[in-house]
Amino acid sequence: MKKFFQTEWQNISFSSFHNISSTALPSFEFYDAFYSVLLDQYPDYDALDAGWRRNKDEIADWLASLLPDKARVLSIGCGLGYVEQRLWRQHASRIELHVQDYSSRALRWIKQVLPSERVHISGDDIGGAV
Q1: Cα 113 off chain centre by
Q2: How many distinct structural domains can be found in the chain?
Protein backbone atom coordinates (compact mmCIF):
# COMPACT_ATOMS: atom_id res chain seq x y z
CA MET A 1 0.00 0.00 0.00
CA LYS A 2 1.27 3.43 -0.89
CA LYS A 3 1.36 5.92 1.97
CA PHE A 4 -0.32 9.25 1.39
CA PHE A 5 -0.32 12.32 3.60
CA GLN A 6 -1.22 15.89 2.95
CA THR A 7 1.52 18.53 2.99
CA GLU A 8 -0.55 21.64 2.28
CA TRP A 9 -4.12 22.90 2.35
CA GLN A 10 -5.70 26.11 1.03
CA ASN A 11 -2.32 26.97 -0.53
CA ILE A 12 -0.58 26.87 2.84
CA SER A 13 2.43 24.57 3.09
CA PHE A 14 2.47 22.86 6.47
CA SER A 15 6.26 22.98 6.56
CA SER A 16 6.12 26.79 6.36
CA PHE A 17 4.98 26.99 10.00
CA HIS A 18 5.61 23.60 11.60
CA ASN A 19 7.97 20.61 11.47
CA ILE A 20 5.83 17.96 9.83
CA SER A 21 6.17 14.19 9.90
CA SER A 22 4.84 11.43 7.69
CA THR A 23 4.67 9.10 10.69
CA ALA A 24 3.22 11.22 13.52
CA LEU A 25 -0.29 12.62 13.78
CA PRO A 26 -0.63 16.41 13.99
CA SER A 27 -0.61 17.91 17.49
CA PHE A 28 -2.83 20.58 19.03
CA GLU A 29 0.05 22.99 18.46
CA PHE A 30 0.06 22.14 14.75
CA TYR A 31 -3.65 22.88 14.40
CA ASP A 32 -3.44 26.15 16.32
CA ALA A 33 -0.47 27.25 14.22
CA PHE A 34 -2.22 26.22 11.01
CA TYR A 35 -5.44 28.08 11.81
CA SER A 36 -3.47 31.16 12.82
CA VAL A 37 -1.78 31.20 9.40
CA LEU A 38 -5.00 30.33 7.56
CA LEU A 39 -7.08 33.00 9.26
CA ASP A 40 -4.40 35.63 8.66
CA GLN A 41 -4.43 34.75 4.96
CA TYR A 42 -8.21 34.27 4.58
CA PRO A 43 -10.16 36.76 6.71
CA ASP A 44 -13.58 35.28 5.89
CA TYR A 45 -15.26 32.43 4.03
CA ASP A 46 -15.57 34.46 0.83
CA ALA A 47 -11.77 34.65 0.58
CA LEU A 48 -11.48 30.83 0.43
CA ASP A 49 -11.33 29.03 -2.92
CA ALA A 50 -14.73 29.18 -4.67
CA GLY A 51 -14.49 25.54 -5.82
CA TRP A 52 -13.79 24.38 -2.27
CA ARG A 53 -16.79 26.39 -1.01
CA ARG A 54 -19.09 24.92 -3.70
CA ASN A 55 -18.00 21.42 -2.72
CA LYS A 56 -18.67 22.12 0.96
CA ASP A 57 -22.06 23.68 0.08
CA GLU A 58 -23.01 20.46 -1.70
CA ILE A 59 -21.93 18.41 1.32
CA ALA A 60 -23.96 20.63 3.69
CA ASP A 61 -27.03 20.37 1.45
CA TRP A 62 -26.67 16.58 1.24
CA LEU A 63 -26.34 16.31 5.03
CA ALA A 64 -29.38 18.54 5.51
CA SER A 65 -31.42 16.27 3.25
CA LEU A 66 -30.69 13.38 5.64
CA LEU A 67 -31.62 15.21 8.85
CA PRO A 68 -35.06 14.87 10.39
CA ASP A 69 -36.68 17.86 12.09
CA LYS A 70 -35.34 18.50 15.59
CA ALA A 71 -32.12 16.64 14.75
CA ARG A 72 -29.22 17.11 17.13
CA VAL A 73 -26.03 17.44 15.08
CA LEU A 74 -22.56 16.91 16.56
CA SER A 75 -19.58 17.94 14.47
CA ILE A 76 -16.18 16.95 15.85
CA GLY A 77 -13.13 18.37 14.10
CA CYS A 78 -15.22 21.00 12.34
CA GLY A 79 -12.23 23.20 11.51
CA LEU A 80 -13.47 26.50 10.11
CA GLY A 81 -17.08 25.41 10.57
CA TYR A 82 -17.99 26.19 6.97
CA VAL A 83 -20.35 23.24 6.54
CA GLU A 84 -21.77 23.83 10.01
CA GLN A 85 -22.45 27.53 9.42
CA ARG A 86 -24.25 26.69 6.17
CA LEU A 87 -26.36 24.06 7.94
CA TRP A 88 -27.14 26.60 10.66
CA ARG A 89 -27.88 29.43 8.22
CA GLN A 90 -30.33 27.34 6.19
CA HIS A 91 -31.78 24.98 8.81
CA ALA A 92 -31.51 26.66 12.22
CA SER A 93 -35.21 26.34 12.86
CA ARG A 94 -35.10 22.55 12.65
CA ILE A 95 -31.71 21.47 14.06
CA GLU A 96 -29.66 21.81 17.20
CA LEU A 97 -25.98 22.11 16.35
CA HIS A 98 -23.00 21.26 18.54
CA VAL A 99 -19.48 21.86 17.24
CA GLN A 100 -16.05 20.84 18.52
CA ASP A 101 -12.55 21.26 17.17
CA TYR A 102 -9.06 20.46 18.40
CA SER A 103 -7.80 23.97 17.76
CA SER A 104 -8.64 26.75 20.18
CA ARG A 105 -7.83 29.19 17.33
CA ALA A 106 -10.44 27.56 15.08
CA LEU A 107 -12.98 27.64 17.91
CA ARG A 108 -12.42 31.38 18.42
CA TRP A 109 -13.14 31.85 14.68
CA ILE A 110 -16.29 29.73 14.85
CA LYS A 111 -17.59 31.78 17.77
CA GLN A 112 -17.52 34.79 15.44
CA VAL A 113 -19.45 33.15 12.58
CA LEU A 114 -22.09 31.07 14.36
CA PRO A 115 -24.79 32.48 16.64
CA SER A 116 -24.49 31.52 20.27
CA GLU A 117 -28.03 30.32 20.89
CA ARG A 118 -28.53 26.60 20.34
CA VAL A 119 -24.93 26.30 19.09
CA HIS A 120 -22.62 24.87 21.69
CA ILE A 121 -18.90 25.31 21.26
CA SER A 122 -16.63 23.55 23.70
CA GLY A 123 -12.90 23.22 23.73
CA ASP A 124 -11.69 24.37 27.10
CA ASP A 125 -10.61 20.84 27.96
CA ILE A 126 -8.44 20.33 24.86
CA GLY A 127 -5.50 22.23 23.55
CA GLY A 128 -5.90 25.23 25.83
CA ALA A 129 -8.62 27.70 26.68
CA VAL A 130 -10.86 29.13 24.01
Answers
A1: 11
A2: 1
pLDDT, residue 9, reads 92
Does the residue 37 lie in any domain? Answer: no
pTM: 0.83
- Is 76 inside a domain boundary? yes
Task: Average the pLDDT over 93-116 and give the result.
Answer: 86
CB atoms within 10 A of CB 113: 15
Examine residue 100 and state whether it is found in any structural domain, yes or no. Answer: yes
pLDDT attached to residue 125: 46
The domain that holds 99 is classified in CATH as 3.40.50.150
- In terms of residue numbers, what domain contains 66? 45-122
105-117 per-position pLDDT tens digit:
888 888 888 877 7
